[in-house]
Amino acid sequence: MEKKRNNYAFIDGQNLHMATAKRDVDPWKIDLTRFRIYLERKYGVSKAYYFLGFLDETQQKLYENIQSAGFILIFREHTSLMLGKKKGNVDSDIILHVMKKLYQKEVFDGVVLVSGDGDYKQLVDFLVEEKRLEKILFPDGSRASSLYKKLGAPCFAALDEPGTRKKIELKKAP
Question: Does the model's pTM come out above 0.85?
Answer without folding.
Answer: yes
